Amino acid sequence: MMKMYRFLLFLLRDARSMMVLMVLTGLLAGLSSVGLLAVINKLINGAGATPELFAVAFIGLAVLKVVSNYLSQLLLVTFAQKTILNLGMDLCWKVVRAPYRTLERRGAHEILATLTDDTNAMAWAVNGLPGLAINVAILAGCSLYLAWLSWQAFLGVVLLAVFGLLGYRQLYNRVLRSSLAVRDAKGVLFEHFRSLTEGMKELMLHRGRRETFVDSDIRQAAEALRHHNLVTTKQYLTTDSWTQVLFYGLIGVILLLFPRLLSLSGEALTGYAFAMLYMIGPMWGLLGMVPTLSRGQVALEKIESLGLALGEGGREGGAERAVIHGTQSLEFSEACFSYEPKGEDERSFSLGPLNVTVRTGELVFIIGGNGSGKSTFVKVLTGLYLPQQGEVRLNGEAITPATQDWYRQHFAAVFSDFYLFKKLLGLDPALIESQAEGWLKTLRIQHKVTIRDGEYSTINLSQGQRKRLALVTAMLEDRPFYVFDEWAADQDPQYKEVFYGELLPELRARGKGVIVVTHDDRYFHVGDRVLKLDEGKILEIPNSTASTGSHRATPVFKPVIRSSA
Predict the structure, then answer these.
(1) Taking a C-beta distance cutoff of 8 angstroms, is the pair 511, 362 a contact?
(2) Span 444-484, pLDDT tens digits
(3) What count of other Cβ atoms lies within 10 Å of the Cβ of residue 230?
(4) Distance between CA atoms of residues 354 and 377, nearest Å
(5) pLDDT tens digit string along 236-258?
(6) The pTM is what?
(7) Pairing of strands 397-398, 411-414
(8) Where are the extended beta strands (E) located within 174-227?
(9) Cα(481)–Cα(334) distance, integer angstroms
(10) Domains recognised in the chain with CATH numbers
(11) Alpha carbons 82 and 250: distance in angstroms, whole number
């Protein structure tokens, strides 16, 4: 119950300014409901004022009930929608600010499940707050009315309710544990769905793989989810049935036992009966919110388990530190990074210690076999990883978690597993206007794609063409350092010539530091240095030794000197 209480406090953390109004209107709605009950009870028992006064009181309380209920719902719905928006934006900012290694370990399927399923569960919980608040107000008002009718009877009701709630708590904890199992089962099924969409070609080419994957893996995950959903539903129904037994038991005690034990008047007895019956609707509504709030609570716990705790800072704030342009030096000093082995049979991999310097105005090739550490080196180089030992320095300044994002802004990169955004986000419109068309022409893709209003006309292209667009985006970013990870691996020879013979030398001529991961040894003579990675260690080798041929890269197009503004 304490977890549920903390969850509700979390949802209401941004409602301080609206809290007073929401509480007042909710109380008015609850008290007016109680007033209507009292008036009806008086009329039935023929006690009190004249029919005219009863009519005035009834109409006034009914109007107050409708108006206060409307205002309370309006305030709460406004708050709920604002909270849903803030939750979604807060979570997105948490994801983009999280350590990249944390996101890698969790996997794309868990992050996507959090951004979809968990945020949806949180949204349902927030949307239920208006009804929850109204029902609580009505139940509180009815409780006050019962205490006013007979405090002895009310004390007996409270004692019986406490006994019932102790049993309810045990049942509720079982529901919560089952909800956690449902969330985990959804994560497994979501991962299989991701494999289904991303591995479609491989599944289509192998009937045995396809049938085993669908009939075994997906079916088992779906059956597990069905089982956990069924168990959770059964436990919730058991909890609901216990509540009904408790509630109707209370009414039976009030009608059959209290008159013998307590000196209740006829008005008090009918008042208790009416109030208890009237409380059934709000009580069921309150209990109906329990599974919704439980799913929201589970979603919040799952989000926090991913290291994406909400409510602890949101969007990036403070003054942005400017990117340094001009001559720069990037230095690895005894830098090391290691991966933890995932299983007993898997050996750990360590990169480093690395001692290497890269300067602007320099073109460096990185070579190495599979598993040599090239991808890890690129991630440390670009600031996606921080070294676990040693340092990475920019112009002599050691990079720390506090300066990591500032350091990243010095790089433009096209990774081997790049993602291409259709919009040219965060780029200077004037720069796009002056340079984009030239780059499209240079890469011979202007007949496929145009740029209008800062957006590519299409990205529904072949992998090689998409890679060329990613290169256009990188060129427009105008960063001090450029990193290309196997960019030319799936390009036609003519585009390799453009890349190695024209674009890379031009970037170097513009004073950029260029780091290229490649296996194209016939172009090594274009670079200034060649660094070889082998089992996480780095070695500088002469260009002539690295190259197996004397081919001179001849540009297909005449280089175009572009403004670096």
Answers:
(1) no
(2) 899 999 998 889 999 999 999 999 999 999 999 999 999 99
(3) 12
(4) 9
(5) 888 888 888 888 888 888 778 87
(6) 0.71
(7) unpaired
(8) none
(9) 21
(10) 2-305 (1.20.1560.10), 329-339+349-546 (3.40.50.300)
(11) 40
